[in-house]
Amino acid sequence: MSYEKVKQAKHLSIGLKQTLKAIEQNLAQEIIIAKDADKRLTSKVIQFGAEKNLIVTYVDSMKQLGKASGIEVGAAAVAILKD
């Protein structure tokens, strides 16, 4: 379900740093986090997203999230951006 959402999104920020930047700039509307990503790295994104009242969705695999985002490597976090 969430992988499809990522594939269909018009605009994405891919990766932890880019996702954090999108949240800071109020560009994100939803955050997708890979469950197999390092919790120490994703916790800041999750906490920051919650503070901004963003929907946080979890998916099983970094590899699948990266693939759904159109990149060849895994992604720990992806932000679906506002249109």
Automatic annotation (TrEMBL):
GO terms for cellular component: ribosome. It comes from the Bacteria. Residues 4-82 form the Ribosomal protein eL8/eL30/eS12/Gadd45 domain. Keywords: Ribonucleoprotein, Ribosomal protein. The keyword Ribosomal protein applies. The keyword Ribosomal protein applies. It holds the Pfam family Ribosomal_L7Ae. This is Ribosomal protein L7Ae-like protein. It comes from Tepidibacillus decaturensis. The lineage of its organism: Bacteria, Bacillati, Bacillota, Bacilli, Bacillales.
